[in-house]
Task: inverse folding
């Protein structure tokens, strides 16, 4: 998303851009006495609607960049379902079957208008509203969370798919059940919101609890850190059912001291000989067609732009344990994995997809069509 910041000079609303969304900090457990909602795996979006003569709709991303042109079908749905003058915080998602599909969502960010229109028909998006920042001529940023929630329920009482109100509850036991159930529909976890909290932009005043699991993975390479000759990230692999090592993600959260230590620690595994490099499982990573049949590092992407995706190949002989929260489509880590420990007791061949825990499936439509609470 390379566009400039969202501007809505043609609008006249009580809350105008830039609006930076309220954020959450991670915790291990859900705290009591809060409002609980599912954590959606999509694009955070703030929708501005001014019911003027041109009935404008603008959609801003979490970073303040415009999303409007990428979701033309959603613009029409928002016009049909939102109050004439409002600012709504929510999430853009794509539903495939009975779960969310984040990969399909990322494909929607494309510079070609013709492809945007085609994807709008093939993979139409939905909008899940979970906060109301302005209604009519009233700004609600200083209004407590519980009152904003009540106003949202009233304002979107007649909304219909693909515009939804996020289910919410004050019952901790219900939220804990959602935490287990909703993962099977592709959701990330649970968000907890203090009921008396005003909308505090760009502050981590909410709580998020996400799933965490561990996996044993093969270390097959690393990238240099942008600041200099220390390790930036470790490239991780898992063997598929054919025994082919597939790239599943990276782990990158190390202190600068540890990054420097890793350079020396991994030196014996580095492959400098061109002939040996050619035998590396990911040797074809620079060939665009190779990415069609295998998961390799450095896949070309509109997200990467001109970013240097080169990496240093290592002999795939060392195993490490990482923590992860979610597998995207069952083949890669959705977010950066966290290093836990080396596993000298494991062989690279034993690191297969079979070790990964599959969440129990749960129909996403049960979440989207559930009666909004609180």
Result:
């Amino acid at each position: 998303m390379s566009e400039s910041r969202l501007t809505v000079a043609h609008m006249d609303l009580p809350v105008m851009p830039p609006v930076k969304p309220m954020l959450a900090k991670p915790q291990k457990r859900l705290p009591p006495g809060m409002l609980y909602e599912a954590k959606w795996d999509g694009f955070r979006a703030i929708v501005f609607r001014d019911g003027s003569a041109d009935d404008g709709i603008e959609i801003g991303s979490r970073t303040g960049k415009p999303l409007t042109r990428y979701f033309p079908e959603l613009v029409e749905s928002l016009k049909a379902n939102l109050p004439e003058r409002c600012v709504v915080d929510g999430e853009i998602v794509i539903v495939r079957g009975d779960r969310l599909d984040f990969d399909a969502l990322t494909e929607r960010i494309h510079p070609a208008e013709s492809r945007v229109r085609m994807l709008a028909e093939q993979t139409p998006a939905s909008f899940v509203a979970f906060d109301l920042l302005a209604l009519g001529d009233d700004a609600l940023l200083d209004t407590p969370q519980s009152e904003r929630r009540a106003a949202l329920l009233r304002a979107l009482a007649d909304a219909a798919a693909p515009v939804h109100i996020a289910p919410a509850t004050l019952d901790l036991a219900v939220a804990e059940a959602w935490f287990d159930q909703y993962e099977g529909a592709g959701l990330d976890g649970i968000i907890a919101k203090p009921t008396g909290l005003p909308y505090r932009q760009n502050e981590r005043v909410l709580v998020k609890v996400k799933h965490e699991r561990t996996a044993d993975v093969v270390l097959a390479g690393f990238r240099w850190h942008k600041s200099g000759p220390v390790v930036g990230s470790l490239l991780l692999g898992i063997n598929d059912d054919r025994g082919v090592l597939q790239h599943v993600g990276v782990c990158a959260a190390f202190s600068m001291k540890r990054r420097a230590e890793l350079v020396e620690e991994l030196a014996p595994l580095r492959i400098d000989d061109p002939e040996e490099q050619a035998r590396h499982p990911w040797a074809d990573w620079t060939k665009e067609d190779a990415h069609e049949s295998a998961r390799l590092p450095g896949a070309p992407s509109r997200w990467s732009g001109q970013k240097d995706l080169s990496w240093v190949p290592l002999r795939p002989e060392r195993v490490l344990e990482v923590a992860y929260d979610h597998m995207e489509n069952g083949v890669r880590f959705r977010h950066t994995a966290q290093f836990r420990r080396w596993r000298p007791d494991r062989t690279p061949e034993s690191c297969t997809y079979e070790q990964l825990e599959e969440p129990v499936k749960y129909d996403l439509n049960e979440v989207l069509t559930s009666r909004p609470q609180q």
